[in-house]
Write a structure and sequence with these properties.
8-stranded parallel barrel, TIM Barrel, 14 helices, alpha/beta, 266 residues, globular
Length: 266
């Protein structure tokens, strides 16, 4: 069993456990208490390359990154640094995250938030909506065509945007079959855990015009962002480089070019 299969199996087991403790009907009863609408997709289409700043404490590939990090302080720094949106890992076993982190991020920043997890069941969509997410990640590699289509449709019915993640041409074709509006190109091979930013450059020509494209994994510097911007990428999702930064606000400013904009203004 590969790492991605282990992660998917763990996600399914976690959902089954939470369903027993808190049935979906109870989640649905809380939907009316959702806060203001923060459109995730719209935030990625503003002029220039948008940065989705991620909060995670560890990962299967990197191990412990920032185990004691405070989610509220970190996402507030991302927002001050010019991030367009936030990504919050809610997987506990492998990333040290939780739905509590999602709620805390919602209360500490005004940016739209994507719940990043291994979404395999509609129950998780209701969790995301109730706990403050504006969007969810759907990993094509982790889902059958039928599951992908059903989860995409259910998410949109709940007014959740979807970042549909692909790694190769076949997965991109599957994402386009559900008419995904926001496509994430993950430079990481989830089976081998190898990262190659060229994945984004290779797949970009196959993405139809009008789609919003997000490059994910292996991005840590301003020069990489400028190259991605030149080929038409709309946004980048950055986690490790920001979580390892001693000054996350300054690192976000560096990546977003916020300081350059300020210099040009004066």
């Amino acid at each position: 069993m590969g790492i991605i299969d282990e992660l998917i199996e763990g996600a399914r087991e976690g959902v089954d456990s939470r369903k027993r403790e808190f049935p979906q009907a109870q989640l649905e009863s809380r939907l009316s208490g959702r806060g203001e609408d923060r459109p995730f997709g719209e935030a990625l289409t503003r002029p220039g390359l948008s940065v989705i700043a991620e909060f995670k404490r560890r990962s299967p590939s990197a191990g412990e990154i920032a185990p004691g990090a405070d989610v509220g302080a970190r996402v507030a720094a991302y927002e001050r640094g010019g991030a367009a949106a936030l990504s919050v890992l809610t997987d506990a076993p492998h990333f040290g995250g939780s739905l509590d982190d999602l709620r805390a991020a919602r209360g500490a920043a005004t940016l739209p938030i994507i719940r990043k997890d291994f979404i395999v069941d509609p129950y998780q969509l209701y969790e995301a909506a109730v706990h403050g997410a504006d969007a969810v990640l759907l990993i094509v590699r982790a889902l059958s065509d039928r599951e992908l289509a059903a989860l995409y449709e259910e998410a949109r019915a709940l007014d959740l945007d979807c970042l549909v993640e692909v790694h190769d041409a076949d997965e991109l074709e599957r994402a386009l079959e559900v008419d995904a509006e926001v496509i994430g190109i993950n430079n990481r091979d989830l089976d081998e855990q190898r990262v190659d930013i060229q994945t984004t450059f290779e797949l970009m020509p196959d993405v139809p015009a009008g789609k919003t494209v997000v490059a994910e994994s292996g991005i840590s510097g301003r020069e990489e962002l400028m190259e991605l911007d030149r080929v038409g990428v709309d946004a980048v999702l950055i986690g490790g480089a920001l979580m390892l930064a001693e000054d996350p606000e300054a690192k976000t400013r560096e990546l977003t070019g916020a300081d350059e904009t300020r210099e040009h203004r004066y």
